[in-house]
Automatic annotation (TrEMBL):
Xref: SUPFAM superfamilies: Globin-like
Family annotation (Gene3D superfamilies): Globins (1.10.490.10)
CDD domains: Mb-like (cd01040)
Coiled-coil intervals: none
One Gene Ontology MF term: heme binding
Organism expressing this protein natively: Acrobeloides nanus
InterPro entries, alphabetized: Globin-like_sf (IPR009050), Globin/Proto (IPR012292), Mb-like_M (IPR044399)
Protein name: Globin family profile domain-containing protein
Amino acid sequence: MNESSASVRTVSEHANYFMNLLDRITENDNEVDNELRQLGSKHVFLLDMGIGVPDLEKFGEIVADAFLKLDGIRQSKEATKAWRMLIASIVDHIRVGFESEVRLRKRKGSVFPDGFDESLYDRRNSMPDPRRPSLSLHANSIDNVTRKLSQM
């Protein structure tokens, strides 16, 4: 995993990490998919605080809403669709890592507090959407989006 993710603690550090992650995705960093799954597995501790898979889905909706309010994105159907797909894919990869770690810990019979709430582990989708197998963007896609945004 990216060394910078090891020390991300504050909201500001999370925001910087996320923006760095988006930069790496647009640069076709092939390590991002695995890093997102590892990121999900590292956040299993949130179950102790009552945060689970449904909250990851809600997080994705909140991020999408924030991005889709931006003028350059809001004014283009193509950009809106691309950002929705990208954010959904990011959340799917994080969720897969989160769920994998939950299953691993369940098998080992470890780390879950008494009265563990199974609804926190309620999965909406058990597998990432096959139409979005990777976060890597093709250079043509980036060029097309950049060209369309510059024409606005």
